[in-house]
Design a protein that fits this description.
Elements: H1 8-12, H2 19-27, E1 33-36, H3 42-49, H4 55-61, E2 77-81, H5 84-88, H6 96-101, H7 111-125, H8 135-142, H9 155-166, H10 169-174, H11 176-190, H12 222-233, H13 235-248, E3 278-280
Parallel strand pairs: 1-2, 1-3
Helix pairs in contact: 3-4, 7-11, 8-11, 9-11
The chain binds flavin mononucleotide.
Length: about 280
């Protein structure tokens, strides 16, 4: 009986079977394919593209469990998309040009540097004084930053401040840049120093690991919210681990993503990780 009890998410979405993308690549060598669905971080993308040095890790990224030694990534496999992962944990993208396109390493970023850059953009795009500015407009303007503190102390203060100010007509009149600045103050008060912590470089793919702040859109946010709260209670450990990652950035080749012998993909014009033909791992 239990075998028939499946969640609504499972009933709506077929399983992701990445090896089918490999089969399609081989069957249609004149087409380029990219993979879409279930990829949660840049380390996973690197492994899918063959950047990681361990064959075992590449095979795990592709969900392969047999004939692992003989498997190779077809040259017409072009890239992977990240949807919810990037939405929930946008900081993962800070070193993506270096990690995927082999550009020079970026200047070390912090959440403050990202937010101040975005605040300046908002200041120009939504100057103060627009009396018709709706809640929706301000919400959409600040939305890309909502995952910036996922899994960290101060996340709630940041999001709650934005939510409250977005609904306040006077604050809306001042603009989304103002709301962002106030939210930065709130997070700073809740978690001093967090804004200035250096962002950790992309880490190698870790099979089975879900990113912090992960939210299963298909399944609804309930369980993830509980997870988030429990994560926040472990914030000390997390911050320590993040700092350790940064400290280790100079050396440990086994956990860092700087090497690999595969060629960097050509950057698509849209500057995303997508390609001309997107094929869900579920073999649509
Ligand atoms: C914020 C966000 C924006 C998206 N925008 C598009 C889009 O413009 N076009 C599209 O075909 N799919 C879009 N998707 C769907 C993703 O391409 C993808 O199919 C879906 O999120 C499953 O992949 P994931 O497991 O990486 O989230 C979007 C998904 C998210 C979360």
């Amino acid at each position: 009986m239990a075998q028939w009890v499946i969640s609504s998410a499972e009933s709506e979405y077929p399983p992701l079977i990445y090896p089918r993308v490999l089969d399609l690549c081989r069957e249609f060598p004149d087409l380029e394919f990219s993979l879409n669905g279930g990829v949660n971080d840049i380390g996973h993308v690197r492994s899918l593209l063959g950047f990681e040095e361990s064959q075992e890790l590449r095979a795990q990224a592709w969900g392969l469990d047999k004939d692992v030694e003989n498997f190779s990534i077809p040259s017409n496999f072009h890239g992977a998309m990240i949807g919810r992962g990037a939405m929930n944990t946008p900081v993962m993208l800070w070193d993506v040009d270096h990690q995927i396109y082999h550009e020079d390493p970026p200047v070390q970023a912090t959440r403050r540097s990202l937010l101040e850059g975005y605040r300046d953009y908002l200041q120009d795009a939504y100057p103060p004084g627009d009396t018709d500015r709706s809640v929706g407009v301000v919400h959409m303007a600040v939305k890309p930053t909502l995952g910036l503190f996922a899994g960290l102390r101060g996340n709630r203060a940041y999001r709650a401040t934005l939510d409250t100010l977005t609904r306040d007509k006077t604050r809306r009149l001042e603009g989304p840049a103002h709301c962002l600045e106030e939210a930065m103050r709130a997070v700073e008060a809740a978690n001093p120093g967090i804004l200035d912590e250096p962002l950790a470089p992309t880490q190698a793919f870790q099979p089975g690991k879900r990113p912090s702040g992960d939210e299963d859109v298909a399944a609804g946010g309930g369980k993830q919210k509980q997870k988030q709260e429990s994560k926040e209670s472990n914030r000390g450990k997390k911050r320590k681990a993040a700092q350790q990652q940064v400290d280790e950035a100079a050396g440990d080749a086994s956990t860092q993503c700087t090497g690999g012998d595969a060629e960097a993909p050509t950057r698509p014009e849209s500057c995303t990780l997508s390609s001309s033909v997107d094929v869900a791992g579920s073999a649509v």
